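Contributing new records

If you add data, match the layout below exactly. Sequence lines come first and carry their own label; structure lines follow with theirs. Keep one chain per record. Anything else will be rejected by the validation script.
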Amino acid sequence: MEDIIKSFHIDWKLMMAQLINFTIVAWVLWRWALKPLTKVMTKRAEEISKGLQDAKTAAEGLEQLKITKQEMIKEAKHEAAAIHKQAELTAEKYRQDTVAKVKAEAEKAVAEVKQKFISEKDEMFKEVKQQAASLVIQATAKVLGKVAAPKLDKELIEQAVKEVVNKSKSKNI
């Protein structure tokens, strides 16, 4: 072995010094370079992992928001349809109420006009009766040359006028 050591020119003292130097350099590198670098890399890996987790959470939240948005839109459409239907029903009810009110007013006006017409018609018949009775009395007095008992004449004439009126009413009905 000594031959091998001499043939490769290995110096034990130098080898020990290099081993001590290597150990010191390795310890210094480990202490001030590798350890902080490992901390930084670990911290960076944690940040990346956290960022990926946050991105995944955000994507899930976004998906949930999209679903919620779609549900809200659907609900808003249903509410709008319900409001529209309610508005149509309210408008239809208002229209029907208005039509009923106008119809009732028109019927009332027609009834009033009919009543007025009937009262005017009755008034006209009354006047016609009186005038007819007066004319018949005058005509009878001219034809006969004298007036019979006025009370009797008046009663007979009124009875005759009533019969004529009743006949004319039955024809009108």
